Structures are given as structure tokens and as C-alpha cells.
Amino acid sequence: MKKQPFHNFVVDHMTFLVEPDLYKTTYALFRVIFGVTREDLIYEKRSDWPGQKKPASMTFASRLGAADDARAPAQTIVAVVQPTEPKGRGSHVRTMLKNRGGGGHWQHIALRTPDLPSFHRYALDRGVNFITPVLKDAEEDLIQVFSGEWMVPGGRPTAVFFEFVQRDPSPELLRRLEASSNREAWFRDKTFLGLYAEKEAEYKKGKVTPFIDDALARKIEARLKGLEVWEIGDGLLEKVEADMLAYAKSRKGRKR
Fold this sequence. Notes:
Elements: H1 20-32, E1 41-47, E2 56-62, H2 92-100, E3 108-112, H3 116-124, E4 135-136, E5 142-149, E6 161-167, H4 171-178, H5 192-205, H6 214-223, H7 234-255
Parallel strand pairs: 3-6
Antiparallel strand pairs: 1-2, 4-5, 5-6
Helix pairs in contact: 6-7
């Protein structure tokens, strides 16, 4: 098949669906954890249905970052996974697909950062859970870490989580990537089996790690109760962040 010019795909945007109970918490987490500023909010749209007491925010779009490093190739990468376990054996992939009620589901988004160790510490200090430590591949041009799942407090697993990566390709690696025989090198995910085993163990135990603990999620929810996202000011977000810092510090103290 001849590759056409329109086959040069790049990521434009991704849509993330959440339940109403998680919507405002998601907004706060994007602002605090992902560093989304007012200027990064592209739009926020509201509904005003008959009988509605006041308009409700129905969607917001935000810019998480812009790539300005010419060394990093502009590529769109999709990893496709199927459940290969026998039908009688447990499979978290099969469970995820069944829980979503369909044949396909966007499981996680990989977000690239220029300084993963610093972001990892920042997120941990604010109560974010990760199911793996920061992992390196054999050639150390890729490091990555995987978060817990985005969940409503007390709810069932959503099979939605984040991967955070840092790529520092060397000139030699870039030359290899341009060679057709090494197309797979850019997504050389040697930690895939490790992640797979972690998720399999979680689903087998029936105890899936959430992005943030239920207690922290409820604290954020209570802090934002009765407000729409356009009513959540920076001052209130500072209080949310303070709650997150205090919770993480307290949790760290309990683990000692």
C-alpha cells in the first residue's frame, strides 16, 4: 500500500470522559497537578437546560504543554494490546473491555515531560499514586512511570490511567529511528510486561490503585461543593493544593 500525504498523522487532541461526581475534581487536578493556567484553558462550555437552577459546566479544554524541542521527533504512537490469556483464566485487559461495555477503550495517555523525576516528586508530594517506580530502559533514552486509575471515590475501576515519560534521544538514536528497519525503536517499551503484571495483580486482587486516594478525592470534592468550574478561583485552588500537600505529608508520616 502506498503511503499518502494524509497518512502523516500527529496527535491533535484527546477527549477524556468522566462522571459528574469526578468532573470538578478533574478540573482541580488538571490545574494543580498538570500546571494548567487560565491561559491554558482553551474553552469552557455550559449547558442551560429547561428547569435547570443555574448553568452547568459541560466541558472544558486545556493545553497541557507544547513541544518545542527540535530533537524530539513529532510522531503519533499507538500501542495495541489484546487479551491472550485462555478464556478460563483471569485477564485484566478482558475485564477492562467488559467493564467498558464495548470492544475498544482508550486505556491510558502517555504525556511527555522534559523532567520526569521532578514531576514525579511534585505529584507524589500532592498525593498522586503511582503503580510503578520511575523505570529506565536499557539504553537510558527513555524513562517512564505509570499512575493509578482515574476513579470516583468508592467506585469501580475505570481502566483509565496515565503514563508519564521523558525521552532524551541522542543524535545516533535519531539516525537509527529514520532507518526503516528500526521503526519500532522509538517505542521500545521494555517495561510493558512489568506494567502488564502490575495491572494483572491489581485486578486479580480486586484492589486497583486510584490516581488519588478516596479520602483525598472526597476532601477536594467537599472543598468545591456547590461550585461550577468557572467559580473555582485561584485562591480556592491554592487551598485545594494545600489540602493535597497536607494529605500526602500525613500519609508519608503514617507509612514510617
